[in-house]
Amino acid sequence: MPYNTGQNHWKLAVANFQQKTFIDLDPFFVNETEKSTKATLHKFIKYLLNRNKVGYEVLDDVEKWEIISAPSNLPRQSDVVSCGLYVIHYASIIIGHSVDTEDFDPVTSRRKLAYLLLEQAGDMRHLCGQCGHDQYSTNNKNFSLMAQCSNCLRWFHRRCAPALKKATCEEINASTFQFCCHICGSFPSQ
Ligand SMILES: [Zn+2]
Ligand SMILES: [Zn+2]
After folding, report:
1. Quick check: 37 and 4 in contact, CB under 8 A?
2. How many A from CA of 150 to the centre of ligand 2?
3. What are the pLDDT digits (tens) for 21-47?
4. Model pTM?
């Protein structure tokens, strides 16, 4: 379970149900698990067990689960901004999706993750680039009419893009219609 501490730092809590142990993985490898963290980990395990309706017999002793230290071969965070990437990397090592390596590069990892998110993202055509709502957020026909910016390929409601407000619905619906959105800082090409 990834969790955020102090509203500015990601850590990873790992529970081993067979061994009844926790690892509290801090990308900075500061090895002090606070009391509040322990209590949070215990609550989390109880929640998981309750939700899955299994393992009631271990509920009683979860407070006694030992917190063990992190494997020393994990890469350590060397900047002040990449804790989230390290946490993702640790998690992928633990579930066997990544090989255990000490030469983890957060810059490369950040770029790979960005590509992955973009590649795996759903079709955004039903979401307006200005308001973020979909095409069907209202029953009003004009309100839900959308068009695609020919420059950035984002879609916009007619009411959300100044250039589209100036065009009639017939113009927008025409197959030849093109426009550049206000985010691209341009004007309708026709
Ligand atoms: Zn909109
Ligand atoms: Zn645009």
Report:
1. no
2. 7
3. 888 888 988 766 666 677 777 777 777
4. 0.60
